[in-house]
Design a protein that fits this description.
Layout: H1 3-20, H2 24-32, H3 37-40, H4 47-58, H5 69-81, H6 92-96, E1 100-109, E2 112-120, E3 125-133, H7 142-153, E4 159-166, E5 178-181, H8 182-195, H9 202-219, H10 224-235, H11 237-245, H12 250-264, H13 266-269, E6 271-273, E7 280-285, E8 306-311, E9 318-324, H14 328-337, E10 355-360, H15 376-392, H16 394-415
Helix pairs in contact: 1-11, 2-10, 5-8, 8-9, 12-15
C-alpha cells in the first residue's frame, strides 16, 4: 500500500472510530437541546441577523417583554468589565439610576450596525453606537469614521458611548471604543429573562431561550457545550479534521459562478476575462486590450496595468477600476482627472499609490450574510446582474472610454527610460 492509500485508509478508520466510540456525541446532542429556531434559519454566524436580534432586545418597546432591563444590564456589565480609563464619563451607576423617556433605535444608519438615541426625563440625550463583528474584521478605518459621523450628527448629546461587539474579544483599532463580548450579551440576557419571566409571553420566551442556547453553543468558550466539544475533538481529531476539510466553501462557489457567468457572456458585454481567484474576479473592456495595457506587473498572472475588479472579501461585493504599478508620469494626470465626473474614485490620499482605484461602482445592496451563502447560485446571479448593470452604467462607460484614450500614452510611458 502506497503512502496515499495508507493515509486514506487511516482517515476512513478514524471516521469509523468517531461513529462507534464516541459516547460524548450523545452528551453533546442532549446539551444542544434539539430544535432551535435560530439554527433552523441558519442564523449562527449571520452578522446582520445577530444585529437584528440585538436591536430587538435592546428596544424597550420590543415585543420581547423585557422592557429596558436588558439594555441597562448589558451596558452596565460592559462598562463595569472595561478599563476604568476607557470612558470615565459613564459609570454603571449612571445607567442604574437613569429615567428613560424614549429610545430611538436605528439599524444600518450610515452603515452603523446599531445606533441608540436615549432621551431622559431631564431632557438629557445619550447616543450609543454599536459596531458588531461576528466573522469579518474591522477595516478601512471604519470605527473612526463611524465615531466621526456620530460626533458630527449628535454634537449636542450629553454623552456618547461607542461599543465594539465581537465574538472573539477583538480589540478596537479606535481608542474611542469600548470592547464588548457576546458572553456579556449572554449573561445580561439570561439575568433579564429570569428577572422578567412573569412579564414575558410564551412565544417571546421560546425565542429568547433559543437565542441564549445558540450563544452558549457558538460564542462561549467556557460552557459545558464547549468543553464537551473539545473532548470530542481531542479524542477524534483526525476524523473531525477530515470532515472540516470537506466543508463547502460558499464564497468561492459564489465568485467562481460570477466568473463563469461573466466569461460566458464576455462577447455580448464587450469584456475579456483576466486571472481570478476566490477573493477577486477581474476583467477588462475589449477597448483596453491594447499594447499600452500589456506591461503590468502588479498582479500574478496578469500583464495588465488597469483592470476591473469584483471584490468578494468584504461584507458586500465591490466593483471598481484599479491601476497597479503604473508609471508615475501616466497615473498622476489620470488620478487628478478622476476626481471629477464621470469618475467616482476612492477618496483616500491626494497622491496615487502603486494600487490606485480610479473609479468605483455605487455600493451594492447585496450583503454576504453567512447564513445566506448556502444558496451560492442565487447570490452569484444577483452579484452578476449587479456587475452588468454597473458596468453598463453611463458614467462607467465614459470612464472606460477616457482610460482607453489614455492607453497609447501608457505605452509611451513604459517606453520612456
Amino acid at each position: 500500500m502506497n503512502d496515499k492509500s495508507a493515509s486514506l485508509q487511516a482517515d476512513f478508520d478514524s471516521l469509523n472510530d468517531l461513529i462507534v466510540n464516541c459516547p460524548d456525541f450523545d452528551r453533546l446532542e442532549a446539551l444542544l437541546g434539539g430544535f432551535n429556531l435560530f439554527q433552523v434559519l441558519k442564523f449562527e454566524h449571520g452578522e446582520i441577523r445577530h444585529s437584528n436580534v440585538l436591536a430587538w432586545i435592546l428596544d424597550p418597546e420590543g415585543s420581547h417583554g423585557l422592557d429596558s432591563i436588558f439594555l441597562k444590564k448589558w451596558l452596565m456589565r460592559v462598562l463595569h468589565e472595561s478599563s476604568d480609563e476607557t470612558n470615565p464619563l459613564i459609570a454603571p451607576v449612571d445607567i442604574d439610576a437613569w429615567q428613560l423617556t424614549d429610545v430611538e433605535l436605528r439599524r444600518e444608519w450610515k452603515n452603523i450596525d446599531v445606533l441608540l438615541v436615549l432621551t431622559f426625563a431631564d431632557k438629557r440625550r445619550w447616543v450609543v453606537c454599536i459596531e458588531n463583528k461576528i466573522r469579518s474584521a474591522q477595516h478601512s478605518n471604519q470605527l473612526r469614521r463611524y465615531r466621526s459621523i456620530v460626533e458630527t450628527h449628535f454634537s449636542e448629546a450629553n454623552k456618547k458611548l461607542f461599543l465594539f461587539l465581537t465574538k472573539r474579544n477583538e480589540l478596537p483599532e479606535d481608542e474611542g471604543y469600548i470592547s464588548a463580548s457576546y458572553t456579556q450579551v449572554h449573561k445580561a440576557l439570561k439575568e433579564s429573562l429570569e428577572n422578567r419571566s412573569h412579564a414575558i409571553g410564551s412565544e417571546p420566551k421560546v425565542l429568547l431561550e433559543n437565542y441564549l442556547r445558540l450563544l452558549e453553543e457558538k460564542f462561549m468558550e467556557e460552557s459545558e457545550i464547549a468543553r464537551t466539544a473539545q473532548r470530542i475533538y481531542q479524542q477524534h481529531r483526525r476524523a473531525l479534521d477530515v470532515i472540516f476539510d470537506q466543508k463547502p466553501d460558499y464564497l468561492r462557489a459564489i465568485s467562481d459562478k460570477v466568473r463563469q457567468l461573466l466569461n460566458e457572456n464576455a462577447d455580448s458585454l464587450g469584456i475579456q476575462m483576466e486571472a481570478c481567484n476566490k477573493a477577486y474576479v477581474r476583467f477588462i473592456p475589449k477597448a483596453w486590450d491594447v499594447p499600452g495595457n500589456s506591461h503590468g506587473t502588479a498582479w500574478a498572472g496578469i500583464k495588465r496595468t488597469v483592470v476591473f475588479e469584483v471584490k468578494f472579501s468584504g461584507k458586500r461585493p465591490y466593483l471598481y477600476v484599479i491601476s497597479g504599478k503604473a508609471p508615475k508620469a501616466w497615473i498622476e494626470p489620470l488620478w487628478i482627472q478622476s476626481a471629477s465626473s464621470p469618475f467616482k474614485r476612492v477618496k483616500r490620499k491626494d497622491q496615487p499609490q502603486w494600487w490606485c482605484m480610479l473609479h468605483t461602482a455605487p455600493q451594492s445592496n447585496i450583503v454576504f450574510d453567512d447564513s445566506e451563502l448556502e444558496a451560492p447560485e442565487e447570490v452569484a446571479q444577483s452579484v452578476y446582474e449587479w456587475c452588468v448593470k454597473s458596468h453598463q452604467a453611463t458614467n462607467t462607460q465614459e470612464v472606460i472610454k477616457i482610460i482607453a484614450d489614455q492607453l497609447p500614452a501608457l505605452e509611451a510611458a513604459f517606453s520612456t527610460p
